[in-house]
Structures are given as structure tokens and as C-alpha cells.
Amino acid sequence: MGTPITATTPWATAEDWEACRALHRRFGTTYYFSTRLFPRAVRPRVHALYGFVRVPDEWVDHASPLRANAAEKLAAYRRETIEGFRGQRPNEPVLRAFLDVARECGMTPSEPLLFLDAMESDLTVTRYRTYADLERYMRGSASAVGLMLCDIMGVQRTAAITEGAMALGEAMQLTNFLRDVGEDLGRGRIYLPLEDMDRFGVTVEDLINRRKSPEFIELMDFEIRRARKLYEVADRSIPELPRAMQRPVRLSRVLYSRILNRIESSGYDVFHHRARTSSTEKLTAAVGVLISRK
């Protein structure tokens, strides 16, 4: 599991915490909205986690043509993360906030470093032969984030909660991949497993040419069903969370899964439109979660 942070003096400044919150509000609108249902003391921790994952994600997504520069930034970020867990104050603002949170929660380096492994792979891996290959990537890019969130919430990782957190992270990541097929093509990446594309008769050229063929729709429908099954696995564990943590997690799950509905209602046009939930839909979902007895 690694060695916990040993430093005792907080590193983050008020500006560092605000930087994390601003990143969350700007880039993670659904997550940011759901975070407002967490107890007040937990919200800054969630912002710090988002900041930790967003900064390297931005470097990777905007790497071309500066891929070498992104690799250097990621390497430095990794070093600062490792050294931070050993007690050395980081230079990166979001890392100062995140590592303060990690210390408070007793988090170890294993999951943060798995996440950074996934970010580094995005610089060189642009295709996934099988869903099992994609799952290995999502273990770092998504499931690790779910497990870090458990630490931040102060949740004991039972077998059920661990399974649910990992499934929810994977479901949300897969939802992202389905929503962002067009955007990812612009980055030279395809996250739809090639074996699934072969199964439904969809070629890489079809995607590059943005052909919304009957075969592509069948492929998307298959992946959407796969994502919904993952959400169902996650649903079984949400009642195991402390009551104060259930509502924000459930709201995030409800809103994110509705992106799949938007993909369907758009006729699976993920090449020209970005499926998203509206402000009204967010508010309606929040009211539904708040009045729910679950």
C-alpha cells in the first residue's frame, strides 16, 4: 500500500484551495454540482481530489504537438507526488491541497500513482484491442479515483464498497468515452474496444469519417448497456455508505448516467454534439435525490 505522509504542518494556502475549487467548477460541472450535497467539511477535500486529477488530464488532452513537454510535466508531477508522500512540500498548488487531504485521510500513494500511470499511457496508447485492455486503463484513470474518494469521505473500504466505487468510476469513465468519441478522434484516440468494433462491423475509417451507420448505432447501444450494468453494480453499494455521503454520490451517479440517455435521444450523434444534462435537469435530479428515502 505504500507509506503515508509523515509531515504534520499543512502545506496548502487559501489560494491553493481556491485553485482546486475553480478547476472543479470550470471543468467538472456535474461533479461540482453534486459535491455541494457533501457536508461542508468534505467539499474542499473533493475539490482537491478533482484538482489533483484534472491538472495532468489537461496536460495529456492538450499534449499534441507538445507531447514531450507533457511527458516532462507528468514526470515532474509524479516526482512531486511521491516526494510529497515522503514529507516534502510540493511546488504545484493542487498537489499541496491534495496531499494535505491525503495526510488527513490516511491515504497512501498507491491509488494516486495508478491514476498517474493511466495519464502517462495516454501519451503513447491510442487504441485498445479488447475491453479487458480498456478495463486495465480504467483501473487507473477512473476506479482509482473512486477509491480515493472513499478515503476522502472517511469510508471503510469493505468488499462491497470497493466493488461499488470501482464500478461507478468505470461506468462514468465509459460514459465519458461514449460521449466524447468525436473529441477523442481529434486527439488521435479511440477508446471503443477494437474487438467490439469488429463484432459490429465498424472500422477505424468509419469513425474517422464520422459515419453514423446502423452498425455504429448497434455498437453504441451495446456499450451503453455495458455502462448501465456497471451503474447497477454501483447502486448496490451506495446504501452501504454513511448517510451523509449517499446523496452526493447518488446524485452524481444519476446525472452522469443520464448522459447515456442524451446520447440515445440525439440519435447517437457523438460526432457533432456533446451530450450533457441541462441546469434544469440537474436541479430536478437534486430535488429527487433530496426527497428520496433511499
Itemize the secondary structure elements and their pairings.
Blueprint: H1 14-27, H2 29-35, H3 43-61, H4 67-85, H5 93-105, H6 110-121, H7 131-153, H8 159-179, H9 181-186, H10 194-200, H11 204-208, H12 214-237, H13 243-265, H14 279-291
Helix pairs in contact: 1-2, 1-3, 1-5, 2-13, 3-5, 3-6, 3-7, 4-5, 4-6, 6-7, 7-8, 8-12, 8-13, 10-12, 12-13, 13-14
CATH topology of the largest domain: Farnesyl Diphosphate Synthase
Q: What CATH architecture of the largest domain do you see?
A: Orthogonal Bundle
Radius of gyration, in Å, reads 19 Å
Which sequence of SSEs, written as H and E, runs from N to C?
Answer: HHHHHHHHHHHHHH
Helix content: over 70%
Number of separate domains: 2
User: Number of helical segments?
Assistant: 14
> Ranges with pLDDT <50 over ≥5 residues?
none
CATH level 4 superfamily of the largest domain: Farnesyl Diphosphate Synthase
Shape: globular
The chain-level structural class is mainly alpha
The total count of strands amounts to 0
Report the β-strand fraction as a percent range: under 5%
Mean pLDDT: 93
N- and C-termini, Cα separation: 34 Å
Describe the main β-sheet briefly. Answer: none
Q: Under the CATH scheme, which class of the largest domain?
A: Mainly Alpha
